[in-house]
Design a protein that fits this description.
Layout lengths: L1 E9 L7 E7 L6 E3 L2 E3 L6 H13 L1 E16 L4 E15 L9 E8 H4 L7 H4 L15
Parallel strand pairs: 1-6
Antiparallel strand pairs: 1-4, 2-3, 2-7, 5-6
């Protein structure tokens, strides 16, 4: 079974009431997620998170820590996926879709609604607005 690392970035608007979500084109149906995607070979988790947000939304971000780490097995694909959910801050850029073949929409979604789509365990969803994060450390 192949392991795939996936990063997502939780980004709040200035009022901390809405979360930036992307609508992905799926095989059968479209679906919402936080901006993010697979970590590429030779890339750190942080580099992947920053790159994926830029590719999917047009925004520049910095990441400030990890909200959660989740794991799932996708038997049909033969994948074990580890999901790293970062919390980030927008530092520049403007919202635009650069990969319309993958992304249908980039939208600010009220945080209560967005929690239904965020891939974090239910017991952590109430803490999404809290600032309790695990640090991300790249050892050199």
């Amino acid at each position: 079974m192949k392991r795939v690392d996936v990063v997502y970035v939780l980004l709040f608007d200035k009022s901390n009431e809405s979360i930036l979500m992307v609508k992905n084109k799926g095989e059968a149906n479209s679906y919402y997620t936080l901006p993010g995607g697979a970590v590429e070979h030779g890339e750190t988790l942080e580099q992947a998170a920053i790159r994926e947000v830029k590719e999917e939304t047009g925004l520049d971000v910095e990441v400030n820590g990890i909200l959660s780490v989740c794991e799932a097995f996708f038997e049909k694909r033969g994948h074990q996926a580890v999901f790293f959910n970062f919390v980030g801050k927008i530092t520049g850029g403007e919202i635009k879709i650069t990969y319309p073949e993958e992304i249908e929409e980039v939208t600010w979604m009220e945080s209560g609604l967005a929690e239904n789509y965020i891939q974090i365990p239910d017991e952590l969803k109430a803490s999404v607005n809290e600032k309790y994060l695990a640090p991300y450390i790249l050892r050199k």
